[in-house]
Structure formats: structure tokens, C-alpha cells
């Protein structure tokens, strides 16, 4: 195949691009089929309170299991395609239902878990019925609103600010908690952030990774200071080392999540993992 210059405006589609489009449509079709056939899974990754060192929450993370023990595609590939196709609206409702079931299961084992975090995408806000949908799911699943923490990225918050803010206000009045995911990687201004009805900032793992070998960590420090001044909680994602955990705890970061503590796991494994923490005494 001849290399075509991207600056040549007569070239709209290269053969590679066409293949890629077909590939994306194939993935979306396979995802839809597998979702409707009940083949998707939700795994859970523990979140720990840095003050107590004990589990206090967990994040629901979609998985697309394939044949054997592998995965068809990772979420970094299939979630954007599910968003692009609109399929994330149905899948996202199902994830919320699964979170309700997981909530019942963790409540039964006295784990100290007070909330389950669920990621929510732009298309789920677009029809303006997200708060209503969530209220319905919480009711049907008998999950208390305070046990649900929605994770939205800055790009979700900036997509249709009025619609998103209205939905978030309604949800927070119900008692649902809201966190800004991947915080620090978006383009929102402090003014825009201030207008958002939120409870916590989830520090992006790229900033957490800077806390290494005694250097870096200044972004994390700035974010924690900002959160503390504005009355928000902070959760650090991607914590992989004891050094990072210690640094975050010393700063007064509220919670941490990462491979240092635990990887995402199926619900039954997470329940076993939680049993390894002796009861508070
Ligand atoms: P996210 O919400 O920022 O989730 C955190 C990601 O970081 C997860 O990737 C998790 O497995 C990974 N992670 C956790 N701890 C560590 C660590 O210590 N080191 C490293 N390197 N990675 C760590 P995962 O599960 O592959 O999910 C990727 C993204 O897919 C999520 O990022 C989220 O944006 C999206 N996603 C996953 N499940 C859902 C869902 O149910 N709905 C929506 N809308 N998006 C989802
Ligand atoms: Mg939390
Ligand atoms: Mg998240
Ligand atoms: Mg994140």
C-alpha cells in the first residue's frame, strides 16, 4: 500500500482507516451480542481508607471475558466503542444493577465497605433521565443512595454542563456521591470545577506514579491541598508501592486504590479478600 500524506486533502480514507472502521464495527457487534448473551462481567477493586488502612469502598470495573481465561478486549478499547455506539447506556444500567447485588453481598460480610463506585459516561447523561434511572435501580436493588459513588471524568462534566449539573444535583440531593475520575488530566478550569456538585477528586494515576524514589509528587500535593481547602475528599488511583501509600497518607489524602493493595477481582474473590481483614477491635 502506498503511503498517503495526511496533508493531502483529497485523501479522505486510507485503506488502513477503512479496515479500522470495519474492525470497530465488528467489535461493537460482538460486544452487543456478548452483552445480550449475558457474557460481560463486573469485577471490583478495593478502595482503602488511608487513615485506618482498611477497605472502605470498591470500584466496579467492566470485564469482557473470552474463551478460556483471557479477555476479548480490555475496557480501554471496548468502553470507548460502547460509548461511541450508545451501547454504554444499556451496559451502564446493568453495571449499576450489578453494583446493587454486590452491595448486598458485601453488606452481609461486615466488611467496613461503605460505598461502591461506578463509572458513568457521557451518553448516559444525554437523555436527561440518568437521575431517574439511577433512583429506579437503587430502589429495585434496595441499595441506599449513600452507598453509590458515581465516577465521572472532567470531560463528562464539561460535555453539557447544565444537563450534567442538573442531574448531579438531583443525585446528590438523593444522597448519591460523586467523584471526578482521572482528576488533573482534563481541561476544566477551577471556575468550572467549582460549579460542579461533587464530593471527591480521584487523582489520576499518572500523578501518583510521579511519587517515586523520593522525587515528584508535587501535583498530588497540590490536588490534595486544593481538595482540603474546598472541602472535598481525595482518592488516589494506581497506588503501586508502599512509598506512594506512605506519601499519600502523610499528605492527608483520604483514600487509595491500586495494585499495592489489590487488583480488580470477581465478586466472590473480593469477598474472600475482605475476610482477610480482622474485625475492628
Ligand atoms: P478508571 O475508571 O480510571 O479505572 C481505573 C483503571 O486503573 C482500571 O482499569 C484499573 O484496573 C486500573 N488500575 C487500578 N489500579 C492500578 C494500578 O495500581 N496500576 C495500574 N497500572 N492500573 C491500575 P480498567 O479496569 O482496565 O478500566 C479502564 C477504564 O475503563 C476505566 O478507568 C474506566 O474509564 C473504563 N471503565 C471500566 N468499567 C467501566 C464501566 O462500567 N463504565 C464505564 N463508563 N467505564 C468503565
Ligand atoms: Mg471513596
Ligand atoms: Mg473510575
Ligand atoms: Mg481513573
Automatic annotation (TrEMBL):
<protein>
    <submittedName>
        <fullName>Phytochrome-like protein cph2</fullName>
    </submittedName>
</protein>
<feature type="domain" description="EAL">
    <location>
        <begin position="24"/>
        <end position="278"/>
    </location>
</feature>
